Amino acid sequence: MILIGGFLISCETNQDSKGEKIPPASAFLKGEDPQRVIQYVSAILEDKPSSTLYYIRSKAYFAQRKYLLASEDIQRALQIESGDLDFLFLSAQIHYHLEEYNEALKDAKSLEEAGFSAPGLWILLAEIYAQNGQTKMANYYLAKSLKVGLSPRDRAYVYTLRNLSVGDTLTWMKTVRDSSGIYLSETPLARLYFQHQGDRVPMLDYQAQLLAARKKYPNDPHLLRFWARFLAKIRQVPRAEKVYASVLASFPSNPGLFAEVGNFYFKNRDYYKALAFFDKIPSNSPYANEALFIKSICWLYLGERLKSLALLDSAQQLYPTDMRFRGLRYRLLNRNLDSTRAQTDSLSAEPSEN
């Protein structure tokens, strides 16, 4: 790492072909502290907006896992110069890490249509399709990425995605055992590890591994989310609630997270807070039917039988093939509250593993 004085000297500015004032490439060598890059670029941006500088600062924020700040800068860059493919690729990556999968897919497909060809794009498309449950498309892009030279880390990640997308957890678990050092030292492999290994490794080991990862990447909102889940699992409810509040600040419009936090409050019998989070879920979200089902149970537990029935009636019209609504409505009309509570306690959904 070069000293601060050397860094500032190396950052004497020049102009690119668009007349923008930018630091030379030597100022942003691989391994440079992103925070120092941010500080220097921010000082230059005070004089004049620059798409290139917004892009550079966005990359630095992205390296720090500060995805919201990265998103703000890359959108500024695209407003100035909408056709830059490197800008669009970073935008797609940021959308993915913010779990904005529709926006990520839109950017990624635009890149593909524009002839942008890179293993990173194929892997990103596979990630997006895997998150959307489109296994065939995910495997198509995984296979495409394997036809080019990949680093050992990227190859391990691709094989992990492929095994998980087809439900081959046994092969994946063996890979994790054989390469645990790689999984725990690198992201996004670490993200997959902590997402899927919570119930497969001793609790104390998982806790130590997750804390070590969070120390290395303190701004990573996904690791923070796994920490909130872990605290909820060990019944540290007040601490989990505080951590979830921090996670929500990183994902201000995430239906999957709203469903997860709603379930957290539901399981801890804080029904009004559960309702507040389920109400945030849009009607076109894949979590909408689950939200309506648990909301109907919340109103029932709060003694609002008529509200619960009205919600179940509406839900039956919206989701006629989801038999949970009809079954709960039948039990509610034919049994008392205590017996209904006993049967519905087992119906709450597990938090979505995103």
TrEMBL record:
Cytoplasm found in the keyword field: no
Species name: Aquirufa aurantiipilula
Protein name in the entry: Tetratricopeptide repeat protein
Record carries keyword Nucleus: no
TPR repeat coordinates: 255-288
Keywords: TPR repeat
Sections of the chain in a coiled coil: none
InterPro entries tied to this protein: TPR-like_helical_dom_sf, TPR_rpt
